[in-house]
């Protein structure tokens, strides 16, 4: 048989292969099948162990205490989500069970209030990467394990006991939550408040231009830290100080050091001796796959040369799908400025989305990169200080 090799468009990614595959393909599928219900999960030792580990972690974190059910209180439900974590070589890394609150049963003003959590801005990412390249700073990425579980709740939230783990002596009690859980409306905000409070206590200042950016500037040390949910980018002029800062944060939060930055919010970062390149190859292909346009014919322009004319029997477009695709294409312009005008055009008329998207999809077959960042370092620093008011 011929040698197996990944397709050319996936050359930048790890394409896992399984050595000595089982004779039965069904056996392979069953071995990594994720249970959809608690009843199914309880049949397997691996999933029972994963649930026990999750419950132990929640108890260790003092996530809740059992209390008698308050009369008339709104009690949210909970459910289990099961995921199989894979290694790069295609083998199973671990079985993950996560307890999730049914936040859709929460009542505004009663068991949740503010839910807003800042989202990192695209220009901020560009500034951070540009500064790191020009000053040759290290670009590190951290992952916060179970980030939402660190948030402290200000509201009184009651939750049913976890399915399969009802206390034998207090079966009618409910969980009074002290810490946030995945699924709660206020969980993202509670986590961000917890992290930002910790960073400010260390000496960081929150940027006035972007609440996701934190700056540390003391003596000769200049550190930039960018947060998006549980993903953290950190860079600065003192690698030793960055390491000590990481150790300090690890005392309050369980951190996983992912090393050099390679992937953040769909942006693929490649490092070379002269700087970095940024692309969204996988993001673009996933977008085209969802739109069923991977087989589109290749063209040289992202927009038609003449206005699109629609026939009377043209297929209507789902408004929700329209907004989703427009938003995805807009984010793709981060590294594909060549489609910006085309994306703005389709954003003006829902009726031409299908035809216009086909043109853009055909053009996206050509992969473009945002190359090494090169600008005047002093002007960048001055602009940054003006934006953060520092």
From TrEMBL:
Pfam family of the protein (one): RVT_2
Where does the Reverse transcriptase Ty1/copia-type domain start and stop, copy by copy? Answer: 61-304
Which protein is depicted?
Reverse transcriptase Ty1/copia-type domain-containing protein
Source species: Trifolium pratense (Red clover)
């Amino acid at each position: 048989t011929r040698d197996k090799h990944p397709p050319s468009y996936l050359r930048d990614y790890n394409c896992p292969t399984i050595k000595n595959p089982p004779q039965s393909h069904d056996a392979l599928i069953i071995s990594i099948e994720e249970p959809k219900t608690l009843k199914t999960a309880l049949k397997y030792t691996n999933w029972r162990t994963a649930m026990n580990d999750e419950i132990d972690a929640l108890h260790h974190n003092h996530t809740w205490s059992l209390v008698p059910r308050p009369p008339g209180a709104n009690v949210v439900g909970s459910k289990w989500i099961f995921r199989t974590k894979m290694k790069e070589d295609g083998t199973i890394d671990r079985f993950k069970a996560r307890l999730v609150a049914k936040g859709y049963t929460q009542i505004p003003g009663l068991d949740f209030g503010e839910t807003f959590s800042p989202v990192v801005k695209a220009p901020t990412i560009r500034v951070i990467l540009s500064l790191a390249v020009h000053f040759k700073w290290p670009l590190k990425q951290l992952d916060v394990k179970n980030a939402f579980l660190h948030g402290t709740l200000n509201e009184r939230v009651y939750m049913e006991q976890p399915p399969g783990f009802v206390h034998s002596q207090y079966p009618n009690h409910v969980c009074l939550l002290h810490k946030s859980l995945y699924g709660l409306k206020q969980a993202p905000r509670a986590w961000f408040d917890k992290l930002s409070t910790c960073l400010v206590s260390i000496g960081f200042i929150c940027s006035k231009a972007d609440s996701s950016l934190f700056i540390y500037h003391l003596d000769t040390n200049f550190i930039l830290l960018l947060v998006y949910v549980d993903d953290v980018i950190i860079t600065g002029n003192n690698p030793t100080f960055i390491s000590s800062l990481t150790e300090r944060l690890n005392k309050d939060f369980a951190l996983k050091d992912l090393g050099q930055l390679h992937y953040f919010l769909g942006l693929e970062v490649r490092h070379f001796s002269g700087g970095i390149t940024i692309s969204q190859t996988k993001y673009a292909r996933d977008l085209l796959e969802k739109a069923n346009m991977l087989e589109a014919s290749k063209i040289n322009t992202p927009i038609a040369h003449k206005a699109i004319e629609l026939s009377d029997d043209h297929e209507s477009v789902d408004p929700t799908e329209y907004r989703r695709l427009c938003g995805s294409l807009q984010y793709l312009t981060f590294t594909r400025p060549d489609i910006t005008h085309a994306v703005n055009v389709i954003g003006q008329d829902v009726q031409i989305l299908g035809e216009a998207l086909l043109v853009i999809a055909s053009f996206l077959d050509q992969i473009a990169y945002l190359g090494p960042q090169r600008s005047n370092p002093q002007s960048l620093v001055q602009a940054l200080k003006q934006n953060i008011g520092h």
